[in-house]
Structure formats: C-alpha cells, structure tokens
Amino acid sequence: MAAPSQAIAPTDAELLQAQADLWRHSLYYLTSMALKCAVELHIPTAIHDLGGATTLPELVTALSLPKTKLPFLGRVMRLLVTSGIFASDGSIGDGAEAVYRLNPLSWLLVEGVESEDHTYQKYFVLGTVSRHYVEAGLSLADWFRKDLPEQLPSPFEDLHGVPLVHESTKLLDEELDRIVEEGVAAHDNLAIGTIIRECSDVFSGLHSLTYCCGRQGNTSAKAIIRAFPDIKCTVLNLPRVVETTTPVAVTADDAVSNVTGDLFHTIPPAQAVMLKLVLHFWSDEDCVKILKQCRKAIPSREEGGKVIIIEILLEPYMGPIMYEAQLLMDMLMMVNTKGRQRTENDWRQIFTKAGFSDYKVVKKIGARGVIEVYP
C-alpha cells in the first residue's frame, strides 16, 4: 500500500498563482509564434527604417497591412513588448497610443545593418519554430517510450528519418535545410567581436589558426584576422559549404583559406585549432574523437599549441534567466541532434579522455565559455 502523500495543500493565493504559471508554461509557444510573425512581417526592420520608433498606425502603413488588422497587430505587439522582444514608450495596456522601439534583442532581427557586431538572426528564429522542429518536440513522449537501438537517433531523426544539420537533411525538405544552415551560421558568428575584445590574449601571439566550424565560418575568421593580421587562418568547412563559399579578402596579401575536410579524419595543422559552437552537435564519444584529431594538428604546449573551444558552459552563474536559456538550448540539442550542452565537469572528462593534460576557462561571456585546452 502506498504511503500517504506528505504534500501540503496550496493556499488559495498559491493555487491561483500556480494556475497562472500553468497558463504561461502551456502557452509559451504562442510567444514563439508571435515572434515568428514579427520576423516574417519584417517588423524590426520597419521600426528601424522609421527611425527606430513608431506608433501602431505608422507601423501598419509601413508594412502595407490592411487597416482592419491594426487592433490585432496591437495585441501581438503588446505580448512581444511584455516578453522583452520590443520596447515601448508609454503604456501598452490602457488604450494610450504606444510608441514602439527596438531593443538589443529586436536589433538582431533588423535586416541590412552594417555592423561587425550585428549578425541577422532571422533564420535562427525561423528554424527553431519550423514545423519539423515543432513536430519533433511533440513526439518527445513517444520517443521516450520506444525501445530504440543503443546508437539512439534523436527524436528529430526518429520521426523524420534523417538527421538535422546533415547533408541528408535536404532530402526531407530543401527549404528547411537552407534555413537551418543560415540559422546555425548566424548563431555561430554572433558575438565574435565581443569574444575578440574580451579574450584578446587567446589570439595574441598566434601565427597560425585552423578554425573548424562546419559551416560558413568566414565571418568569424575575417573578424579574427582583422584584429590580428599576423595570424594565417585556415577555415575547415564541410565540402558542401566550401563549394558555395567565396574567400574573404582582408588586404591585398591576406585572405582566409577555405579547405574541405572532416573533423573525424584530418585537421590542417596550426599552432592553434579553434572549435566555436561545434561540439554541442556531437555525442561525448564523438567529441573525444574530434579532439584527438585536434591534438594531432597542434604542436606541444611549450610551442604554444592549444585548442580554443567556445561553447555554452551549463551552470547558473549568470542568474535564472540565462540558465533557463542554456537549458532550453540543451533541450534543442536533445530533441534535434545527438549532442548536448555541457557543464565544466563534462568538458573536463572529455578533455581527459581525448589525451589533453590541462585546460583553462579563460572567460565566461554571456551563456558561453571560452576555454583553452593544452596537449
């Protein structure tokens, strides 16, 4: 016979708060859909083109929307302001005419901004809220119930028959494959300027660097060699990426060298190898295999050899909101890939298994950590 429950019945106030919290957690997807709507309507770009601030009637006119949709757009904007996606001057709830503004988040969704620190994030949004991603998330309970082979497919692969972020993804949907490639590249290239400024010692003194990115790494490579022109940078990309990549010239004499390759088999030798937001796509065992190839590509520690890893460090060091973002990124990996986000202890074990002698977390920048690993 089961023991009686020791749970304490909630008070009236706690019960009402719990109901409101249940609404929030059950309906968060509507915030994602409202964000998708704003991106597809180009609302951030419209606000930017209107001088950075606009009223609802001005926005409806700029977007060429029917005037009958004005009150409905107001309800969408009210949610997005409350969710922190846009800013607003004045009340958005008492009927007063609000003035909508961009904030740092919506600034990333403005098309055509010329800034090294701006990476247009439209396709990251469209990928994460795509039908295929959502369907994989909806299949999660069924995936848990299945007795699958030891080499577990992700819920995405189990449901759709192909892995995500793979050359076979386009067999499922060519448009999804394009959006995901663009979205991952935008995500990967974001904040490279911040990393260079905050962690300049990581690159200072290097004469050669192999940047392993898997997809469209020229943006980050260009920023590195602009800041450190003495570095000869080789970008190791997948063959299908290199076929559509144009070398990025920096001066008459310097350029990023693009080469095709496979992280699991060979990595062009250099004083340092850099892996930026790559390893979270792979299992622990695959990360060990990749890092063993990195170790072969670099000289000894005494000669300056090192691997530079930029990845999410899963821990609540920046408060609950940033930690929740990290955990959601971990769920994104679990549902759609065979990889995961990792704690510092997880990384330590992987480095040891790959044969490295030491490592140092150089700095924690937002949700990410910059780590040097030494042979």
**Overall mean confidence score, pLDDT:** 89
Gross morphology is globular
Largest sheet: 7 strands, mixed
Oligomer: single chain
Please trace the helix and strand order, writing H or E for each element.
HHEHHEEHHHHHHHHHEHEHEEHEHHEE
Class inferred from helices and paired strands = alpha/beta
Distance between the termini: 58 Å
Specify Rg, calculated over alpha carbons.
Answer: 23 Å
Q: Total number of β-strand segments? A: 10
* Total helical elements: 18
Proportion of beta-strand residues:
5-15%
Strand sequence of the main sheet, in spatial order?
Answer: 6-5-4-7-8-10-9
Q: Into which percent range does the helicity of residues fall?
A: 40-55%
Poorly predicted segments: 241-253
General description of the model:
With 375 residues, this protein is an alpha/beta fold. Helix content is 46%, strand content 14%. Helix 1 (12-40) crosses helix 4 and helix 6 packs across helix 11 (174-189). The protein starts with 11 loop residues before the first helix and ends with a strand.
